Amino acid sequence: MTSRTNPGMKAVVVHGPGDLRIDERARPVPGPGEVLMAMEWGGICGSDLAYWRNGASGTASLAHPLVLGHEVAGRIAGLGEGVTGLHEGQPVTVHPAQLVGDGVLPERIAGRTNLYPHVRYFGSAAFDPHTDGGFSEYRTVPAAQIRPLPDGVGTEQGALAEPLAVALHAVGRVPELRGRTVLVNGCGPIGSLVAAAARHRGAGTVIASDLSAASLAVARAMGADETRDLRGGDALPEDVDIVFEASGAAAALGGVLRATARGGILVQVGNLPGTAVPAVLGDLVTREITWIGSYRFVEEIDDALLALRDGLDVSPLITHRFPLERAAEALAVAADPASGSSKVMLRLAAGT
Fold it and tell me: Does residue 1 surpass a pLDDT of 70?
């Protein structure tokens, strides 16, 4: 029960495996250096699904109830003491990562804050207490994590700046992309965004491959020139200069390595399993392939906002929209391969 002076709000909270609730919580009040956001849109990510289905994402397990969501945008509803350069009503998104500790990295990876070992991330159980996400009607956020949306970029688009930043970081792991042939294997939301990011960064030809015709249709709408339906009998292309592996399926690695040109580059975007799995990796050596990992992003969320401003259209990615109260249904649709979903969005405030 909330008081009249501190009204309540709704939040999407996972309490354990399969236990998702719309909880009533007190509306937060911004402290010094914080901003109060009135949330408008949130995108459902694979980690949200993992917490809901398994009570864990990667090595992070629920010890307490957790508000989900790290792909969010809304408007500023209040400013804490000492916050300058922002104003109420301003549309914004969030850089969901906050370093814990002194933030110092070894010189060899200076500036690569995505590799810092202790990071609080929106909607993550990696720390205890957990870091609540943004699938709620309101959320206080340190002002340093706020990113204003450019003119012409709405809050629904702004909520997808975070996954677009992941894609731009992956594309940026390749020294030179312009004019080159690119294969994206795995066309879920991140893979389709990688196709869009590669196109935005000047790739010559973008080929997309997947087991799902619906996913391939999204990838084509997001900028792929060609698609390969692997379940429908298509084969992966041969001798591709640059390959982005976005499925995270260990069973796909053998074929993907064989598709990579001798001396080519393979960027691993999809999270591979944390347990031992069989994989055919011989071509990594005999074809002298450079295999590069790509993890989250540094400040590419700023690049993502500029790309959205400049016309990169993420709307084909959005296949479903649900109100906050139907979050359980939204997650079920996002988790069901038969639903044909790509990015499932939550309306976090009425009227958006």
Answer: no
pTM for this model (two decimals): 0.96
Q: Where are the domains of the chain?
A: 8-163+297-347, 174-293
Confidence of residue 2 (pLDDT cuts 50, 70, 90): very low
Mean pLDDT of 197-217: 97
3-state helix/strand/coil string of the chain:
CCCCCCCEEEEEEEEECCEEEEEEEECCCCCCCEEEEEEEEEECCHHHHHHHHHCEECCEECCCCEECCCEEEEEEEEECCCCCCCCCCCEEEECCEEECCCCCCCHHHCCCHHHCCCEEECCECCCCCCECCCCECEEEEEHHHEEECCCCCCHHHHCCHHHHHHHHHHHHCCCCCCCCEEEEECCCHHHHHHHHHHHHCCCCEEEEEECCHHHHHHHHHCCCCEEEECCCCCCCCCCEEEEEECCCCHHHHHHHHHHEEEEEEEEECCCCCCCCCCCCCHHHHHCCCEEEECCCCCCHHHHHHHHHHCCCCCHHHEEEEEEHHHHHHHHHHHHCHHHCCCEEEEECCCCC
Exposed e or buried b per residue across 170-180, where buried means at least 16 C-beta atoms within 10 angstroms of its C-beta: bbbbbeebeeb
Does the pLDDT at position 220 exceed 80?
Answer: yes
Are 66 and 14 within 8 A, CB to CB?
Answer: yes
For 123-169, what is each residue's pLDDT tens digit?
999 999 999 999 999 999 999 999 999 999 999 999 999 999 999 99
Could you tell me the two tokens for 141? 């956020």
At position 295, the amino acid (one-letter code) is: Y
For the 8-163+297-347 domain, the top CATH level (class) is alpha beta
CA distance 215 to 221: 10
**pLDDT score, position 352:** 63
Q: Which CATH superfamily is domain 174-293 in?
A: NAD(P)-binding Rossmann-like Domain (3.40.50.720)
d(CA 205, CA 198): 9
Q: Compute how many other C-beta atoms are within 10 angstroms of the C-beta atom of residue 283.
A: 19
